[in-house]
Specification:
The chain has 732 residues and is α/β, with parallel strands linked by helices. Helix content is 30%, strand content 23%. The protein binds adenosine-5'-diphosphate and zinc ion (2 copies). Adenosine-5'-diphosphate (ADP) binds next to α9. Keywords: ATP-binding, DNA replication, DNA-binding, Helicase, Hydrolase, Isomerase, Metal-binding, Nucleotide-binding, Primosome, Zinc.
Length: 732
Amino acid sequence: MIPNIARVALPIPLDKTFDYLITPNDLPIVGGRVQVPFGRQRLIGIVTALTDSSEFPIEQLKAIQKVIDKAPLWMPPLFDLLKWASQYYQYPLGDTLANAMPALLRKGREASQTTLKFWALTEAGKSQPLNGLTRAPKQAQILRLLQNGAVSHDALLSEEVSSTTLKTLANKGWIIEQQQQPKSQNWQKQFSVTEEKPRLNEEQALAIATVNSNPEFGCYLLEGVTGSGKTEVYLNLLEPVLAAGKQALILVPEIGLTPQTINRFRRRFNVPLETVHSGLNDSERMAAWLAGRDNQAGIIIGTRSALFTPFANLGIIIVDEEHDASYKQQDSLRYHARDLAVMRANKENIPIILGSATPALETLHNAKMGKYHHLTLTKRAGNAQLARHGVIDVKGLYLNAGLSAPLIAEMRKHLNAGNQVMLFLNRRGFSPAIMCHECGWIAECHRCDAYYTLHQQSGELRCHHCATQRPIMPQCEQCGSTQLLPVGVGTEQLENQLATLFPEFKTVRIDRDSTRRKGALENYLEAIKNNEYQILIGTQMLAKGHHFPNVTLVALIDVDSALFSNDFRASERLAQLFIQVAGRAGRASKPGEVLLQTHHPEHQLLQSLLHKGYGVFSQTALVERQQAMLPPYTHLVLIRAEANDSDTVCQLLQQIRGIFESSPVYDQDCCVLGPNPAPLARRAGRYRWQLILQTPNRKALQQILSVAKPAIQLLPLAKKVRWSIDVEPQDL
Ligand code: ADP
Ligand code: ZN
Ligand code: ZN
């Protein structure tokens, strides 16, 4: 066959490739970019195949305008992974590939290194004694960072080093600016371990030996509480990999990419390290991508999207805090980076380690089924101790913006002692259950074993299982009280109320919104460390990766909205949050205390969590999931749709439901829930509804979807309504 036609995946929302003619003196390559005419546009796409036949008459095909790459952008393991992800997550291949490229490559920039600004020590800088700079810790930090060779300007900025400090050092003649081809030096040759290693304990040694006994693919769950030495295990696992000249990929949650984390790896090894995260600009992102592909980085640490970095010679993958929700992408290609990382390790035939103090139930299930090896670290390094905990039964108590009097009193005690207090809110459930504040009774569907969900807009209760609707009952069906409240009410006003309750103390709220700006989180964390704020309000993100030695009281003020959420993962998230904060509050000299507010202190999951720990909690929760036919025992697909008119959205989802149910593989084990209003039922004037398809069989699910999607696309309503498919959704 002499190929004269190229199949090209274009970045457009269509599930197909397009055929173009090849010019014989400018041959494209599979996996490389080409520029092609598309309607009136010019698009950059990826060649997925070369062939000599097309379903279209050859004289109708247009020719490729320009071949951009002479080599494929991805080696087969990663290219295959992307193709697989496109299918599995039902996202068009062209868009998937575009998603996995740095923006500059999407725009057609050449896939090779350009020069970057670096900083290096001068002779004078090298001879500076670091301990002479105790009054200029930032300067000392820079000198320390440069001791193993030049570091790029961008990398230094991501270490919380400011341009001004760099200038000061340059003026002193201690450091000098260089334009470098990001050092094309051969790091493998000069690899060394650059700090003293602690003596491993038995469990660490066993974990390391187990992983090292098999250099090929294997997935290892490393379960150990905070401070049990997981990072030390990662470092030890990296050592032989790097020594053999291979690279390492470390994935961390969005909030986990702290200078402390990065520095631990930098201090230990003399290898170039790159970070990949949402704060990078286009050229930084491109540089990291190239550093991986061209073997110019030994270690890449990054958030979710770092998974798509190409590597010349990848030797190991580590996913830290593998249970973290930020690994799931919530729009466009809705992938789960942990799951795809396991798949990538499999295709690359290398080991992967999933680390967590509180593994996801999915991961524990996989370990139980023998798919993953389960390694545990039970001992905590040092003498840190777990915080004490207590439960406040708030039934019938007056709640001031969600705070009970006993909690307020306890807060005052800790604040007056000069300590800090941290309050946790759950991510607010927008459609909560409804509960009696006097006795804790929760309105339940009479036909199903499920709680009613309150839909505030319509003022109705609705069962998401059988779609029964009814008005809110006037009284509690158990005690007759008229104090029926949505679970978790009142917390919106919390911040204002705190200013009134504790005028002499300053409050800061840390969440995704308040920390969106680059560097904002670091500034807050620094201010908290300096005791500029005494009361910290946060969501789950505050619990991760940070130690607050002066926080001696942590309160989870709204446990019920997690226990009775219609998102079945909410209780798992609550448990993970509890373990995380209990492990971090206070320090040896100032032991911490964790308080939980609930109407249901007797709740089985809560009891097992508080008295038996995460291990028993997770086993109990898994049994519940199995009985309720929920993941990981079944697989879900979430279809969301929104439009200006509620009926249209609902109608479309009814039609989609019909398409699912008419699939030949749809049997009595499958079920469809909905259409139901989405948790945020109305956003920016648009009505949002959802439909959930559930089956115990992953293959059946994929079969149903692959037939259903083109059928849905043909529906006239599907063109009027914005809709999306989320395979294995994380938030319901
Ligand atoms: P994790 O990642 O599980 O939170 P780390 O690896 O960060 O735990 O370890 C917690 C602390 O204990 C760190 O300061 C680390 O240097 C130290 N540490 C870890 N393993 C050992 C060990 N075997 N001996 C002494 N100290 C250790
Ligand atoms: Zn029902
Ligand atoms: Zn009641």
